[in-house]
Amino acid sequence: MQLTLVQMAATLDSAANRARIEEELRPLEGQDLVVLPEAVMHDFGPSDHDLAAVAEPLDGPFVDLLSREARRLGATIVAGMFERTDDLPFNTLVAMGPDGDLAATYRKIHLYDSFGYRESERLRAGDVDPVVLPVGDLTVGLMTCYDLRFPEMGRALVDAGAEAFVVPAAWVAGEHKVDHWRTLLRARAIENTVWVAAAGQGGSRYSGHSLVADPWGTIVEEAAGGNELVTADIAVDAVRRSREVNPSLANRRMQTL
Fold first, then answer.
1. What is the pLDDT of residues 20-39, one digit of tens each?
2. Which of 1, 70, 184, 252 has the maximum number of C-beta atoms within 10 A of its C-beta?
């Protein structure tokens, strides 16, 4: 299965972001899965920026663009948006199938109340409900950014059948942050024997370093900090082989504790 991660920095202009996404996707062909970052519809902006005012419904212009592009490419596209509600918005991933239909939504469970920031003051958390979907021969589990710091999230996705994790993110830059990002992505791959495909926002505010790790935790492709496409071939056979050699999931004894 051919995968492409689109690393880009979103702005506070939703229309400009859509134009930029369309430009980035235009040359792609042959992909089965395309992943864009968290909040690529509209950046978080400063802490006093009203995300409720810019949030969109699931039939709004952002999802409409992704639907058209997924249908044109014949690929599944996963991307992050702020989803309108009657109160605080959700931080939502939408997965558009190759037919252009909405295949899945995942509303971020773990809001980023950490490193001196409180995402929960601006957004609402989704229900604790793991989301997986089929993409080609693989079952893909969805998580967003800060979810990566919670290993139980990966376990829940694996128990729901995931053979790959897709992780859109806006991983804020700072001391230790790239090291944490790379280490946590590799750890989630190793402990769950899954592929991990992480698309982060780049630019000065975010860490970039979108990457693909195989089920052994080896980074097979990685971006730097700017605008970049990362392409890799991932296969379910690699998951099966790693689980035969390293059957740690089958050897678990603590699932019910």
1. 999 999 999 999 999 999 99
2. 70
